[in-house]
Each structure stands twice: as C-alpha cells, then as structure tokens.
Predict the structure.
Amino acid sequence: MKKRVVVLMGGRSAEREISLLTGEQVYHALIQREYEAVKIDFDERVIQKLMAVNPDVVFIALHGRFGEDGTVQGLLEALSLPYTGSGVMASALGINKAMSKRIFQAVGIDTPLYAVVLACDYNEHSDRIHEDVIASIDTPLVVKPACEGSTIGMSMVKEARELTAAFETAFSYDAVVVVERFIEGVELTVGVLGNEPIALPTLEIITKTEFYDYNTKYTKGLSEHIIPARLPEDQRLKAQKIAVQAHKSLGCRGFSRVDMIVDAWGQVYVLEVNTIPGMTALSLFPDAARAAGYDFPDLVAYIVELALEKN
Ligand SMILES: Nc1ncnc2c1ncn2[C@@H]1O[C@H](COP(=O)(O)OP(=O)(O)O)[C@@H](O)[C@H]1O
Ligand SMILES: [Mg+2]
C-alpha cells in the first residue's frame, strides 16, 4: 500500500509564490518515490480538504506566517495528523527572531549583539531608543521585523539619521523589531537533518547585492552557492556543530537550516533558524543535501519518513 501524503502549499503569507514552487517540486518528488501525493492549497476550507483525503502524513510546504510559525502545526496536531518538520513550539520560536536570539544567548550560542524594540515603547520614546541602540550596538546595524522572512522589512543602517526610516519600515510588518549589529564576514547556511540531527555540509552564499534578499534569492545568477564553504576546516566543523546546537536549542525536529555569518576572526554568529527551508531545486537546503548524497526525491522521501517516526 502506497503511503498517502498531502502537500500543503500556498497559503496567505508573503511567501505564497515560493511555497507554490516548493509544493509543486515536492509533489513531483513524492510521485517519483512511489508515494500517493495530493496537493492542497491552504485556505479556509483546509480542514474539509484534509478530512476528504485522510492522509498518512502531511508535508508542510508553506513558508512564513501561517505555515512555518506553529499555527498550521497546531491545527494538524489537533486533527491527529502527522506532519513534516518541527512542532508547534520550535516553529513559533524559529519564526520569531527576538525569541530565538534570547534562547541562543541563554544556551551560549553566539548571535550578533541585539536589542528588541516594541512598537508601544518606540511610539513614546523614539529619541531615547535611537540613542540607546547607537550607544549599545553602534552602526552599521540591521533593523528587522521579528517575524518576517526573505529580508522583508529589513534595513541596513550606516548612519544614525537613517534609524527613523528603518524602524518605520520594520514596524509596518511587526510590532516587535530586532536591531542587530551588522557582522562583516562570510555568509553561511547549514542544513540540519534527521531526528538524531546531523549537519549537512556548509554552504557559502556569495551575493552580488548588499543583502541576501528576496530578489537575490530567487533570481538566477545573483547569488552563488559554494559547498563546502571556503573556510578553514576547523571553522567549518565549528559552524556545523553550532548549527546542530541551534536546531536543538529551539526544539526543532526532522530538518532545519541555520543562517550564520563567520567573521574575520573565525567567530560564528547565528542569525536565525529556518524551520521550513525552501525546497525547490534551486534552494539552499536541497543543494547541501545533494552534496551529502541525497538527491532531491530521496531527501523529500526521507523527510516524510522522519515525520512518521515516533519520537
Ligand atoms: N546582523 C547581520 N549582519 C550582516 N548581515 C546580516 C545581518 N542580519 C541579516 N543580514 C543579511 O540579511 C539576510 C537575511 O537575514 P536573516 O536574519 O537571515 O533573515 P531572513 O532570512 O528571515 O530575512 C542574511 O542572509 C544576511 O545577508
Ligand atoms: Mg535568513
């Protein structure tokens, strides 16, 4: 009997289009590996659609809010349907850069020096907050909404006078904003895979733009992946070890991808953990998995089997 897998895709986050791409490719991979696969676009009728299919497992191919943030995981828990990847808590922590950075700090994982600013405080004391972040973090710094992905709402601030615009942009996406020291260095992302998690090879990202942003990520030719990263072996091993620690610190399950920057002194800083990394053929996680010997359909099948393992 073939296992029946629902690929949950689309949804209403800012990353809907990427989710549709991921979902389509995951669907084809599942068919190639002898699963019975059914695509479901996530909308208000999702419960009826899921009940009608009655799957053995749900592959969550959603990104951003409503999908990567624990809400859909909670819904599937309530319906007693097994699903791929992290559970409710790890998903909710992973999408929130303020909460995940607090955890990294608590367990001794280096993350860029930061401050969390709430809209309600900012509205009353913006001048004092500007002074504080300049005094404690200093420029250049990065201002980002706590809960967006794909660099949406993020600004780099080189001079104090740019702070107002940067906060305004970030607050238009989230009432919680993270201000972070800008780290100059090699940008890496490290995939973590398995229910007894291991790190995939380090992947170095080279961009021709200032940030590895939405446009750069999804336009061919604007970024390059180098596997393994061009770093001394001890630094690569350290980055892999820290990636697994970061994955475990949030309580992730199955797979995740940890974004980091290694500075000129070899210090590894964790930026964030992505609990549902992009899964198109061009995406980072499948590329790193390929270097570890998993072709794309094998990887998708493995992630499904991990979801069915009890742990
Ligand atoms: N503190 C930082 N120092 C240097 N570059 C940063 C910093 N924060 C973010 N960036 C750049 O912005 C990109 C996106 O930031 P990230 O924190 O991973 O958020 P997301 O991927 O969710 O938008 C990073 O891949 C990196 O290129
Ligand atoms: Mg990122």
